[in-house]
Design brief:
- The chain has 85 residues and is mainly β.
- It is built from no helices and 6 strands.
- A hairpin with a 4-residue loop joins strand 5 and strand 6.
- The protein starts with a strand and ends with a strand.
- The relative contact order is 0.19.
Amino acid sequence: MRVTAVDKLRLYATSLYGKSNDTTTANLWRAGGKYDRDITGRLYGFGGLDFEHDTIGNLKLRSGISGGLGWHVIRDAQTTFDVFG
């Protein structure tokens, strides 16, 4: 995560693999990121991109792109609460 006074970048990745009695019980991965940029003191815009693959669920690749606006309801040094859509 990279945070400045006016923007925030978050990246993530996760993977799950399981095997029991020579049978694969889980095999998936997910990765993505989200970028937030302040427009005013409370209003911000965001964009995101996500990818997912799940062999057991027969999902070759799912991707999603997102964007919208958000509102910093509470934003101080110790607490952040945002709503977005």
